[in-house]
Amino acid sequence: MDGTEAETDSWVHLVVQGGEWAGWSMYGNDPFEDHAGPFYYRIAEDGRPVCAMRPEHKHMNGGGFMHGGALMTFADYCLFVIARDALKDSRSVTATFNSEFVGAVPEGSLLECRGEVVKAGRSMVFVRGIMTVEGDAVLSFSAVLKKTAPRT
């Protein structure tokens, strides 16, 4: 979802049909995120996107908690979901990414992310977000997304 996926008219949105994630959506055209996930999103009642995942054993570090790199990978996915309306007509990449690790994420927990577009300019979109487990903050982040080309 960073603008380097195969040339398509738009992002592929796959709606999950069954199981725990029924009704949630996922992007289906980013090979790295497909490998690193699964990651999901939906639009909450307030009209804002919420992203979620359940960390698996493959996401854990040697201490038994979610690896910082896995958290940052999920945060990068979330950036593009949060900013999708501001990016709908363009391809883009993450230009800057800042994060603060403020809690641990156990395997199997429900990890959620919410955020907002702080400002959407002509060529840059400023985003911030927070990840939580059971309402407790585990990661806060901010980033700038650079629009690279019109979406065809």
UniProtKB/TrEMBL annotation:
Keywords: Hydrolase
SUPFAM superfamilies reported in the protein's UniProt record: Thioesterase/thiol ester dehydrase-isomerase
Name of protein: PaaI family thioesterase
Pfam families recorded: 4HBT
Residue ranges of domain Thioesterase in the record: 63-137
Gene3D superfamilies associated with the record: Hotdog Thioesterase
PANTHER family documented for this protein: ACYL-COENZYME A THIOESTERASE 13 (PTHR21660:SF1), THIOESTERASE SUPERFAMILY MEMBER-RELATED (PTHR21660)
CDD domains xrefs: PaaI_thioesterase (cd03443)
InterPro entries the record matches: ACOT13, HotDog_dom_sf, Thioestr_dom
Family, similarity comment: Belongs to the thioesterase PaaI family.
Source organism: Phenylobacterium ferrooxidans
